[in-house]
Every structure is written in C-alpha cells, then in structure tokens.
Amino acid sequence: MISLRTYAARSLLALGALAAATSAAAQSRAPDRAVVGIAAVYTPGYQGGDDYRLMPFPVIDVTYGRFFASGRKGFGYNVVDGPKVKVGAGATFVPGYRRRDAPTGIGRLDGGAGLRVAADMRFGGVLATVGATKVVSGDVDGALVDASLAYPIRVSDRLSVTPSASATWADSQYNRAYFGISAAQSAASKLPVYRPGGGVKDVSMSLSANYRLNDKVSLGATASLSRLTGDARKSPIVVEATQPSAVLSVAYRF
Description:
By secondary structure, the protein is an alpha+beta fold.
C-alpha cells in the first residue's frame, strides 16, 4: 500500500502549477473560498529518475480570512493581505523518495516539514511569487528558494489558460541530502561518491487550463517540463535531467 506521504513526495511539483492556475482563476471572486477535488497525476518517482507513475491526489485550495491551505503554498497565514501583494508564512511538505524508486543501494529519503515564507505579487496581469523554505524534519535537509511568473489569460467566460515559468535554488545541504552519494551509498550502489554544492537546482515551464462547467464545478489540466541544472544535474543518481509531468483534475467550489 502506498502511503499519503509517498503520494505527496511524487506529486507536489506537478500539482504546483495546477494549484497556481486554480488560485489565479479564483482570485477575482470572493476572498473566502474552498475548492476541493481530485487529480490524476503523471510524474517521476523522484527528480532525475526515469520511472514514472500515474496516481490520484487531492486538490485543495482553501482561504478563510488570512488563513490558507493549498497544494502550492501549504498551510499558513497571510501576514500581509493586500489586493496587489500577499505575504504568507506557514508549513509545507518537502518531498523525498522511496527506496524502490532510487537506484539500488541509495536507499530511502524520507520527506519532511518545511517552514515557508512567500510573497505573491500582481503586476498588471502577471502574477509573481518568491518563496523560501527551511526544512525542519525528515531526511531532507537545508533550504530552498523558489521564484515563479504566471500570466493568466481569460479565453472566455468559462475558459482560462495560464502559462508559467519557475526556478528553484537549493543550498548545499539540500543538494547533498537529495542528490549526493555518501561513501556507504557508493559501496552499496557502485556509483561514485558525490558531494554537490548549492546553486540553481531546476527550471520549469508549464501550461495550465481551467474550464468552468458551472459556478461550482471546474476541470483543470496542466502539462509541465522541468530541467535539473548545476550540481543537481551532475548527480550520478540523475538518469533524466529533463522530465515531463501532467495533471488532470476535477474540482468543486463551495
């Protein structure tokens, strides 16, 4: 049986673009909202792996006053909640990977909780997000900084599309935990010892579409392409530096 944690570890990256598009489509409506649903996610078992999975995953985008819960932002509170700028702080899940997904001898990397601070800014029709996450539990370690740009386009009263681009910087602690190979892992896997440094870990681009069947039900689709860069890309556990992912979803707005 695959646990919820395993689902999250494989699916958060692919769901991020879908959650951003869902949130963008809802921002023009009432500030308090609850959007829930189910998604089918096609994504790699881990960043750099060549084994892909198709699995279900929940869609959540809830805002109540300044409190929020979503697949993109985690759970937290907006300390600044203006029409053009929102600054939130909270907790999110930082994924690892399963033993069976990693190369033989590398072992399992348990995901953990991260404390996250992020700012969402609107410039005309462009939505920009900058966030920083410090890992505080699990086998993953270190810190991540991410930035993204999205441009929602209203095609009709029911259909909107959102192209977006993003990048993630990781410190050396994170890269060594996720992409590094210790002496013990090298002996077990026959892969060379690898001790990566920090730097830009990946860049991604995606295209999302959201179609409202009615005032309550909407359909979503996202196609993404992500590429590892820097020391992360050079890791011996990386089989595919460029990886696609896709999400199909149905959601209900309360």
